[in-house]
Amino acid sequence: MTTSQTVAADMVVTLSYAVHSADGEFIDSSDDSGPLEYLHGQGGLVPGLEAALTGMAVGESKEVTLAPEDAYGEWEEDAFEEVPLSMFGDEELYEGMEIYLEDDDGEVTEAWVSEIYENAVLLDFNHPLAGETLVFEVTVEAIRAATAEELEHGHVHGE
Q1: Cβ distance 55 to 11 under 8 Å?
Q2: Same domain, yes or no, for 58 and 32?
Q3: CB 56: neighbour CB atoms within 10 A?
Q4: H helices then E strands: how many in the chain?
Q5: Are 145 and 12 in contact (CB under 8 A)?
Q6: What was the pLDDT predicted at 159?
Q7: What is the DSSP string of 43-88?
Q8: What is the pLDDT confidence band of residue 3, given thresholds at 50, 70 and 90?
Q9: Cα–Cα distance between 29 and 36 in angstroms, integer?
Q10: Could you tell me the CATH number of the domain that includes residue 118?
């Protein structure tokens, strides 16, 4: 259901997008996967993009250029950790693979396989787009109020 509301906290926003690097290299778009649906104000988007979308209305488009600190952060040289290969069991790993690690407190951290050694794996905790200036072309397709359940869980639920 589309309303005449504007993008604000606790609203479900449907967004078409394309992302390019500052030098014009294509990174991603919603053309293949369809529009992105997210819960505004819950950290589902990079901070600079979420801030730029606030106040937009259905049908409105804009181009937003984000410095690394407003997107995926600066690239950090010390954001690597070598871990035993055995901690992955029989899982087939490959360089560039995105993995999720859960600590003893249940906190989940995202990492990427940087290198695979005979008995160890080098993990990179930098997002692949860290350090990049990004250009987003966005169009708000729909806005609706989030359900109580979506607000409780902090994310959009499918139909």
Answers
A1: no
A2: yes
A3: 19
A4: 2, 9
A5: yes
A6: 61
A7: T-S-HHHHHHHTT-BTT-EEEEEE-GGGTT----TT-EEEEEGGGG
A8: very low
A9: 10
A10: 2.40.10.330
CA angle 21, 32, 92 (to 5 degrees): 80
pLDDT top residue among 158 and 134:
134
Cite the DSSP H helix spans in the chain: 47-53, 148-153
**Which sign does the torsion angle of CA 142, 143, 147, 150 carry?**
positive
In a domain, 109, yes or no: yes
Residue 34 in contact with residue 123, Cβ under 8 Å?
no
Q: Which residues contact 56 (CB under 8 A, 6 or more apart)?
A: 6, 7, 62, 140
- Look up tokens 């005449």; give the residue: 4
* 20-78 pLDDT per residue, tens: 999 999 999 999 889 999 999 998 899 999 999 999 999 999 999 999 999 999 999 99
CA distances from 149 to 6, 44, 138 (A): 21, 16, 27
pLDDT digits (tens, 9 = 90+) for 89-142: 999 999 999 999 988 888 889 999 999 999 999 999 999 999 999 999 999 999
Residue 42, token pair as written in the block: 């819950």
What total of structural domains would you count in the chain? 2
